[in-house]
Specification:
52% helix; globular
């Protein structure tokens, strides 16, 4: 009995890469469900609460100063070198390149631009919302603080909310948002939560952000992920427009003109004459002509016209024969003597 050899994990991976690209039959596109709307509202309330707490210089600002004076990078210096590299997972440039490379390969395999377009839309929303909040509130960071106990607002800074934290939430959370199976979505959600939480706390450890900056960065990134289903119809329209332009460009490059729409065939209908009129009597096509009576024909054998000798006004084209006598004359045969 012959049994097939079990493939190793690496062999299964290469076998999957060798398959032809194919578009999924049913793309699992998240919708704006009631549960998601409730989470969006709760996250937005948390976002506004953090802003109000910092603007009013509440206990949260006092806690920010306490953490800054604690100087975590001096308490645990042995992990400083590692966290200098770990915080790169929240930096926009390197993470965007890594995630875009993966989503680009996935778009090619599935014949769809939705992963790349969704990631682009998320980054655009991130730059607009977080960038506007940074510039609008202008808070200074711990290393540039001027007055102890103040909220350091409207001082020309750009750290509130934390861009590293919000970028980590969006960049790694988009992988969970675009996951094709529930199991992959759960694992990727847990991984993105760990990365975004650790990156935010790392910025506090390094002293580049207040703790309230990190809280607001978590909320800002989560709001973008929760709001993505509202952008899905626009993403679908943009994808269809890009594919239409690609087909048009291919047709122009190959010199083929677009096939015009076929006109519906017109079926002729038979029109019946009115009941009051009688249909005209038509002479049958190809009816035989009346034959003259035999008495009018000249005596003698007759041949068909095609077999007769063509006659022209100049006379017959046949050469004269000595033994023939023209019609209507008598032969001059000599009478033999008796």
């Amino acid at each position: 009995m012959r049994t097939e050899r079990n493939l190793t994990r690496l062999e299964r991976l290469f076998a999957r890469l060798d398959r032809e690209p194919e578009r999924p039959v049913n793309l699992d596109v998240p919708r704006m469900s009631r549960h998601r709307v409730v989470l969006f509202g709760a996250t937005l309330s948390f976002y506004l609460a953090i802003v109000v707490a910092v603007l009013t210089t509440s206990w949260l600002v006092t806690f920010d100063w306490q953490v800054m004076f604690f100087r975590p990078y001096q308490q645990w210096p042995e992990i400083h070198a590692f966290l200098d590299y770990w915080v790169v997972l929240g930096q926009r440039g390197p993470t965007a390149v890594m995630v875009m490379a993966w989503l680009g390969w996935r778009s090619w395999r599935q014949h769809t631009l939705r992963p790349l377009l969704t990631f682009g839309a998320a980054l655009l929303l991130l730059n607009i919302t977080v960038g506007a909040a940074k510039i609008g509130m202008g808070r200074l960071g711990p290393h540039y603080a001027t007055t102890i106990g103040s909220n350091e607002m409207w001082q020309g800074g750009d750290i509130f909310p934390s861009g590293h934290t919000a970028n980590a939430v969006v960049t790694w959370g988009i992988l969970a948002y675009l996951a094709s199976t529930p199991r992959a979505r759960r694992w990727l959600s847990a991984a993105s939560a760990v990365i975004s939480l650790s990156v935010g706390l790392t910025t506090v450890y390094l002293g580049t952000h207040w703790l309230s900056d990190v809280f607001l960065g978590w909320a800002a990134g989560l709001l973008i992920l929760l709001a993505l289903p509202w952008v899905e119809p626009l993403i679908t329209q943009v994808e269809a427009a890009i594919f239409s332009l690609r087909e048009l460009w291919r047709n122009r490059r190959s010199g083929a003109l677009p096939t015009p729409a076929a006109k519906p065939a017109v079926v002729p209908q038979r029109v019946s004459p009115p009941a009051s009129e009688e249909p005209p009597v038509r002479e049958p096509v190809g009816a035989a002509r009346a034959v003259r009576p035999p008495g009018l024909l000249a005596p003698g054998p007759h041949t068909a016209r095609s077999e007769r000798t063509p006659v022209t006004p100049a006379g017959s084209r046949r050469p004269p024969h000595a033994d023939r006598v023209p019609r209507g004359t008598t032969s001059a045969r000599p009478v033999a003597g008796g």
